[in-house]
């Protein structure tokens, strides 16, 4: 397999080269197999770019619903062969579907959008399938709820789209898959399947497990305690709403790196708990502080707006819970010339008021607070 190519000049140039090229490159329709969230979103996005899209799914209801939402039309038996096939099925059947697509459409390029890349690649290789026209890929995009009803044409916009290929991948096949990613607004990255699975294990699969296990601790909790929940709990449990059946498949397919990371995470938890059991013991407070400080350093590495490392100041504004108040706040920020870099909302339990946490550039934070207070807004 090729070495990791996350930020090579070639990838950078292709990311900057513009979009809208796929319709001109395809010699026929793009066929999407799997009409759930990702498949329907691919269809919606490509149709918005003028690309003909046909759909297929084991469930007649699912494919009909995706077609009704405008993601494409149901593929007919006498349709000409597609130029490109996008496999968007669950992880436990993706290798089977890729193999069938390669056999059914031998002249088409086949890609998939599964969140695990090594397991299907290894299985297809074990079966002796000719993978010349197969290019694995994975858009780092999704939602807590699945299905065509949740699909969005802009789901992939500004999100990393990882492409995995081997040294025998034809240039035109790679170019076609990259054109899909670019037309849908994705940011191209290249990795080997091994690098991909270890990376998503850290930034996606481990957080899912931690979030779900934390949320599970809420099940036996008293209602009085739950009523105190604030932004911290909501932030750390947001993805716990994800589909358990899908995640059983994802985690099972990527179990080795995830188990390794869970073991390391468990060791950190055990060390933290040991220090907290006797915080007056020599070195205990330092151990607690070191672990918390490591968290600070880790958060600082997460890319911010547009993938930059720039950090922003936070302003908390009290907003009355009535129609039009949030819109008024945002309008007045615009009138003051304050660019809002990010926004998070939180409601106060039992009170008709909310908190808007607004991220701004540090150099304008003081002026933003002063100007908002002058206009009658309450800040924290």
Task: Label this structure with key terms.
380 residues, alpha/beta, Rossmann fold, 6-phosphogluconate dehydrogenase C-terminal fold, Alpha-Beta Plaits, 3 domains, 4-stranded antiparallel beta sheet
Description:
The chain folds into three domains: 9-191, NAD(P)-binding Rossmann-like Domain (Rossmann fold, 3-Layer(aba) Sandwich); 198-301, 6-phosphogluconate dehydrogenase C-terminal fold, CATH 1.10.3660.10; 308-379, Alpha-Beta Plaits (2-Layer Sandwich), CATH 3.30.70.260. Residues 1-7 have low confidence and may be disordered. Helices cover 46% and strands 15% of the residues. The chain is globular. Strand 4, helix 5 and strand 5 (109-112) form a beta-alpha-beta unit. The chain has helices at residues 9-16, 22-25, 37-47, 60-68, 94-104, 118-126, 171-183, 193-216, 223-226, 231-237, 244-253, 255-277, 284-301, 325-335, 362-374, and strands at residues 30-33, 53-56, 73-74, 84-87, 109-112, 134-139, 160-164, 187-190, 313-320, 342-347, 353-360, 378-379. The protein starts with 8 loop residues before the first helix and ends with a strand. The strands form two sheets. Strands 3-2-1-4-5-6-7-8 form an eight-stranded mixed β-sheet, with helices on both faces. It is α/β, with parallel strands linked by helices. It has 15 helices and twelve strands.
Topology:
Blueprint: H1 9-16, H2 22-25, E1 30-33, H3 37-47, E2 53-56, H4 60-68, E3 73-74, E4 84-87, H5 94-104, E5 109-112, H6 118-126, E6 134-139, E7 160-164, H7 171-183, E8 187-190, H8 193-216, H9 223-226, H10 231-237, H11 244-253, H12 255-277, H13 284-301, E9 313-320, H14 325-335, E10 342-347, E11 353-360, H15 362-374, E12 378-379
Parallel strand pairs: 1-2, 1-4, 2-3, 4-5, 5-6, 7-8
Antiparallel strand pairs: 6-7, 9-11, 9-12, 10-11
Helix pairs in contact: 5-6, 8-12, 12-13
